[in-house]
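Hmm, how's this folded?
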Amino acid sequence: MTRPDLDPLDRKILIELQDDASQSLDDIARKVGSSKTPVWNRIRKMREAGVIGRQTVLLDPEALGLEACFFVLVRTSEHDQEWQDRFLASVRRRPEVQEAHRLAGDIDYILKVRVKNARAYDVFYQGLIRDVKIHNVTALLSMEEIKSTTILPVTP
């Protein structure tokens, strides 16, 4: 996929959308110094180019009773395609997993897991190890979230 050329106005629009995608086109246009129709056309083109993905809302995990955030470090001695397919399928079907990354280095995968408490984490863990053989799992409990953002650094 080729990277689209984004001019300063496109970048200003992206900054506004990341800040609050629910704001009106009129508000975005006013803030970026343009009018409604050109802003709408640029947003449409950036969606078509894949720069803008799906829109959603951000929920407060604690308000939903999901007070525990674990970072789960996974090391495996299995590196064949069948194991990886089973592991990825297991991770993808678990709503507790907010993020999953394959890593370079000593740790193979890191998962960000949101659950109600340690008992709920154990249920998650038991299910995961039932699905796939894992060499080593280390769970790190986040004591305090210092920064969490979905905003990417887009400079105008």
